[in-house]
Structure prediction request, 243 residues.
Amino acid sequence: MRIQPLVKEFFGYVMFSHAWQGKEPSFQDVNQVNSVWDLPDTLLNKKLRDFCLETRRLGHNWAWSDTCCIDKSPSSIHNLSESLTLMYKWYANSAATLVYLAGVAHPSKPGDLPRSIWMTRAWTLQELLSPKVIFFYDSEWKLYLGDNGENHKQSPGIMQELADAIKIPRGTIVTFSPHDLGVREKLRLASTRRATREEDVAYSLIGIFESDIRPHYGERSDALGHLLEEIVARKGEVTVLGW
Prediction:
């Protein structure tokens, strides 16, 4: 009996990618109840439950959501910093990443994906590029375009929509590694994205640049400066910043 399939079945985890829509369930909220099904009946708690249900339908036992699986309280600032540093690897090593497109109505149609607010988030770039398996869902948790294949990264139509939207070759999106794009190209892509907190412009790029910087909220625009300094020190030249 092969061990790898068993390990994947019992220990494989699924990541959640979505745009925050308000007061999402927090680490403290979930920690105070026995399960997500004991949370109050709100639309955002339902979103979390639907993610868990879809994870189970796909045959996996573990689900991870950024809103409630990271303790963001001041007393856990070290854990938050470590979590953000490792985020790229978490997505890259997941059994699958589920992308919930709250603004895409059902039934979805070609062209809806690039217009989703999810596409503009700073964190979206790594959540899109790092997973090996990804599935997109519309607002009713139906698979985007009705595509029930084994992996939406294997869908030429969906991947072409992404390629056209973010100006990255389709093949690069499907098989991305941090070495596939140059420094200037990565920075140019990141410059088109939005972040609620200024620091996230830099922190969302840590994995894509294989950076060693440690997140520290409160440094504001200095966060991007620290990332650029680290890139220059590693590359040994300043011309890479002419983007």
Observations:
- Residues 107 and 145 are 7 Å apart (CA to CA).
